[in-house]
Amino acid sequence: MIIIDDSIKNLNDNYQYGFKDNFNPLYSTGDGLNEDIIREISAHKNEPEWMLKIRLKAFKIYKKLPMPDFGPDLSDLDLNKIRYFQRASDHVSRNWDDVPDQIKNTFEKIGVPEAERKYLAGAEAQYESEAVYANIKKEFKEMGIIFSDTDTALREHPDLVKKHFGKLVTPQMNKFAALNTAVWSGGVFLYVPKGVHAKIPIQAFFRINAGRTGQFERTLIIVDEDASVNYVEGCTAPNYSEDSLHAANVEVFVKKNAFCRYTTIQNWSDNVYSLETKRASADENGTMEWVDGNLGSKVTMKYPSIDLNGPHATGTMLSIAFASNNIYQDTGCIMRHHAPHTSSNVVSKSICKSGGICNYRGTIRMNKEAHYSKSHIECDTIIMDDDSASDTIPHNEINNGDSEVEHEAKVSKISETDLYYLMSRGLSESEATKMIIMGFIEPFSNQLPMEYAVELNKLIDYQMEDSVG
Predict the structure, then answer these.
(1) Per-residue pLDDT tens for 66-80?
(2) Each residue of 104-162: pLDDT tens digit?
(3) Minimal CA–CA distance to 291: which of 247, 232, 336, 248?
(4) Beta-strand (E) ranges in 209-356?
């Protein structure tokens, strides 16, 4: 979780992580992308030949695929001006003191070492294209948990990476999934062995520092049979007049009787395009949970999916989106039921103000084999003014006669009755409005560890500044 330090709240009038570092990368491929740059990236990383072949094949697919023809307008995103790879450090530190000072200062401002000491089993910090720090506590390492950046995992555990890489998120899925596969760098690799339970969170922090930067982390999580893990990530970037691009690919494999909760708190600045592809699979009796908070970025397009492949597998999506000042949040999820007695539950909460747009875009698919399966979708939106907008765009597909799909959606404004009641108890209109909003997002914040819920409330409180009057 991103930690707010009161000392940096006033560094930028609009965005509490708007501070910029005067840090020059050790290496950059410069603007734009071609096949030579992809070969250059792979060579700098000393990758095996099979990974270079995957990259080059994906690049060919990327060039052929069109931009998305739905949702937000991406015509202002100039992919020829993006810097696709920038190296900030020549190695991944295992000791926080070894991180370069300027980079370390950045992550100290957003609370990485504090969070790690207090309540994390392991932490990774990525700055621009690559991880600069990754560490897991000794007791969890002794359990056999593998936690590193994905580049390190490719070198140290190539068979495990090769077995899972690209098996859920393929380049053919969309243009940005293909782009990530071609230029990926950094990200998290996490393997939890059979029967092992990581009882406290493992976390990653992603920071874009320079304008016109592309960040393309590739995350692989494998939770083996009868194991469990709670993974959390936070994202920030400073404000620039130039746009940056965040296009992550995430693959999560939940084996038989296993559990994974993947929590994202995204608080990008309003010059970042966040275009992510996230897909998970759950085997028999497996449980996969996406907990997704989107509180920033210029445009977000993100639809985490779960393939419920085994009987009695369960998938959950709990999300919150906050859009203001012409921010466009186009988010949702995809649940694919492939086996009998599977279940999915989707709860989407969104808040729009000051010209923001929040859309829920989701798909529920019951395949022929998904007998006696159930899905429930609930979308609630609060629109705080006449300049903002929200739509629910569901696609429900049922291919058998004994499954159930329920969908409900509600759009409302702040209740004047509730406002009057709270104000009659001595609260100002602003305080009363914030209290109503906090109650609205409670189903989301209740799913977070206490420390993270407190910080989420601070982020929401900051977003609500000047929302009344």
Answers:
(1) 999 999 999 999 999
(2) 565 566 555 565 555 566 666 776 666 666 677 778 888 999 998 899 999 999 999 99
(3) 232
(4) 214-215, 218-223, 228-236, 244-246, 249-254, 259-266, 272-282, 287-294, 299-302, 305-308, 314-323, 328-337, 343-352
CA dist 238 and 266 (Å) reads 13
Backbone angles phi, psi at 33, to 5 degrees: -150, 135
Closest CA to 219 of 272, 283, 154, 298: 154
Cβ–Cβ under 8 Å, residues 280 and 304 = yes
Categorise residue 108: left if φ over 0, alpha if ψ from -120 to 50, beta otherwise. alpha
CA triple 17-18-19, angle to 5 deg: 95
How many CA atoms lie within 13 Å of 294's alpha carbon, on the beta-carbon side?
38
Cβ neighbours, 10 Å, residue 386: 8
Local structure of residue 93 (DSSP, 8 states): B
209 in Cβ contact with 238 (< 8 Å): yes
Which among 203, 190, 221, 198 has a CA at the least distance from the CA of 139?
Answer: 198
pTM above threshold 0.70: yes
Note whether 87 and 129 are within 8 A (CB): yes
Q: Which two tokens stand for residue 227?
A: 């194991």
For strands 249-254 and 218-223, give the pairing.
parallel
Q: Give, in degrees to the nearest 5, the angle at Cα 208 between 206 and 212.
A: 150
65: left (phi over 0), alpha (psi -120 to 50) or beta: beta
- Return the higher-pLDDT residue of 370 and 409: 370
Region for residue 186 given its phi and psi (left: phi exceeds 0; alpha: psi -120 to 50; beta: otherwise): left
Task: Evaluate if residue 456 carries a pLDDT over 90.
Answer: no
Question: Does residue 54 contact residue 165 with C-beta atoms inside 8 Å?
Answer: yes
Q: How is the chain split into domains, by residue range? A: 6-302, 427-469
Decide the pairing of beta strands 86-87 and 27-28.
Answer: antiparallel
Nearest one of 125, 82, 135, 67 to 100, comparing CA atoms:
125
**Structural contact between residues 125 and 178, judged by C-beta atoms closer than 8 angstroms:** no
Q: Side chain identity at 367, as an amino acid letter?
A: N
pLDDT tens per residue, range 185-220? 988 999 999 999 998 888 877 777 656 788 899 999
Parallel, antiparallel or unpaired: strands 122-127 and 130-136: antiparallel
The rounded distance, in Å, linking the Cα atoms of 124 and 205 is 6
**CB 236, CB 17: distance < 8 Å:** yes
